[in-house]
Amino acid sequence: MQIQINTDRNIEGRGALASQVSSTVETILRQVSDHISRVEVHLSDENSKKKGGNDDMRCMMEARLKGHQPIAVTHQAATLDQAVDGAADQLARLIKSTLGRLHDQKSHRTDY
What we know:
The protein is α+β, with helices and mostly antiparallel strands. It has helices at 14-28, 48-51, 80-107, and strands spanning 2-7, 36-45, 57-65, 71-77. It has one domain (2-107): Ribosome hibernation promotion factor-like (Double Stranded RNA Binding Domain, 2-Layer Sandwich), CATH 3.30.160.100. It has three helices and four strands. It is elongated, with a radius of gyration of 16 Å.
């Protein structure tokens, strides 16, 4: 599973942050990683440092499942860590749900 991290210009510490985000994504998506070819993570500070505000850190994750359309989730939180954790948890649940639905569809097919 390849992980690509993108940040807006308001996010600092890109190198250390990329390593931390990759580790979080790998850990949370470990159970479904065999089905994922790539995860793109987009981090942004919606209000920038000048404005401040609650829940202004945004993490959008898009997973490309092997042989299927990409799926994406977004999570906003007060910190980048919380935003990444929230998005990764949402993505893991969505992938498990999607894979379960695809499995159910295959098991109910009658056109053998």
